[in-house]
Amino acid sequence: MPDPLLFPDLPASGSAVSPEAGEVRALVALSLVPGVGSARIRALLTHLGSAERTMEAPVTRLAAVEGGGRQTAQAISTFRDGDAVDRQLAVAARVGARPLSFLDADYPDLLRQIYDPPALLWVRGRLDPADAHAVAVVGTRTATDYGRRVAEAFARGLAEAGVTVVSGLAYGIDAAAHTAALDAGGRTIAVLGSGVDRIYPARHAGLVRRILDTDAGAVISEMPMGAAPDAGNFPRRNRIVSGLSLGTLVAEARPTGGALLTAALALEQNREVFAAPAPVFSEMTGTNRLVQGGAAALVLDASEILDALAPRLPIREAARVPESPAPLPADLTAAERQLLGALGADPRPLDAVCDASGLDASTALVYLLQLEFRGLVRQLAGKQFFRP
Questions:
Q1: CA 176 to CA 200: how far, in whole Å?
Q2: Kind of pairing, strands 247-252 and 217-221?
């Protein structure tokens, strides 16, 4: 039987009640159990099928889920703080937020693919299927005029092409990117390191209102209602920013800082990373260092990001008129022709290219680099190649 302390709105017997209401309460309750993190919740939901079944399961069954233990199972089984659940749901209702489980059909698929997706997201606004075509624009909070111009130009170009712009609502680059996307009539998603009821920085409450009032995106967080913007929340916030996106652009950054962490997370998630060049004598040389270290592709405008992501952007592909492939240059070597024959419009990893071309990795990389210089091949993160 459902616990009446956790599910006070459920009748004691007989009469009908919305099954969604009980599942939402159970999901929120599970997220509030001390010591139960996102990975444990995902494992329990996957194994038991729902939050309600998880909260009602006996200790022995909870403890049997891989990666768990009796202490965690006991904490779940004995959780009785229905008042805390009520407070979360009351605040959520006041600000127009809803909880979204990673098992829900409208949970962002790109985010579901990362190593550590949030088990629960709080969402204000609306997530749209078109948000699967998203690019993050990130950078320093202490942006220069040059950096803001870069963020605005790229975000505007991406939004005009139908790409959702994702960022973290911070001062500087983040705010410039969100604003430019809205100005262009596009969509934008702001990911917070606090609860979605505690807009941080508070000065950006107007920007949040603009996103919500124009139905131009969403404000999301994995933090519970009331969570403060503590420093430790932001690295976890950054993995969501990059995880929601096909690629991440670092518009301006110092040699160390959160933007470079987001770039590193994007690489770990096998996502594209792009960087805009910084003036040589600027303090903001973080983007130059990313390119110099091979962690990011240098880009000068949004069209270059769109071209790099074209195989994964139906928006761009739909605009192309099918045509016969251009004839290959006459001066290609036999090895280059083999490699081009092994490649198509969809990215292929190096080992698959080698298998198809019959070349070893070292030889293939030499010729692929030459083909890339000639514009006949494009390379994505993780040594994946395709013909543009």
A1: 15
A2: unpaired
- Residue 85 token pair: 């659940």
pTM above 0.90, yes or no: no
What SS3 class is residue 164? strand
> Measured between alpha carbons, how far is residue 67 from residues 38, 102, 336, 365 in Å?
12, 18, 49, 41
Nearest to 185 by CA among 208, 160, 205, 207: 160
Tokens standing for residue 172: 């500087």
Give phi and psi for 62, each to the nearest 5.
-60, -40
What single letter denotes the amino acid at residue 261? Answer: L
Q: Considering only CA atoms, give the Rg of the chain.
A: 24
Position 8, amino acid? P
| Distance between CA atoms of residues 135 and 166, nearest Å | 6
Cβ(42)–Cβ(54) below 8 Å: no
Phi, psi of 100 (to 5 degrees): -130, 115
Cα 288 from Cα 254, distance rounded (Å): 10
Which residues of 171-255 form beta strands (DSSP E)? 188-191, 217-221, 247-252
The sign of the CA dihedral 371, 343, 384, 318 is: positive
Helix (H) or strand (E) holding 297: strand 297-298
Tokens found for residue 344 = 């198509």
DSSP 358: T
The rounded average pLDDT for each run of 10 residues, N- to C-terminus, in the chain (388 residues) is: 51 37 90 90 90 92 83 91 94 95 92 94 96 97 95 97 97 98 98 97 97 98 96 95 98 92 96 96 94 95 95 57 60 87 84 88 86 83 77
Q: What are phi and psi of 273, to 5 degrees?
A: -125, 130
Q: What b-and-e string marks burial along 178-198, b requiring 16 or more CB atoms within 10 Å of the CB?
A: bbbbbebebbbbbbbbbbbbb
Please check whether residue 154 is in contact with residue 137, taking contact to mean a CB–CB distance below 8 angstroms. Answer: yes
* Spatial distance between the Cα atoms of 159 and 185, rounded to a whole number of angstroms: 7
Instruction: Output b/e per residue, 124-157; b: 16+ Cβ within 10 A.
Output: bbebbeebbbbbbbbbbbebbeebbbbbbbbbbb
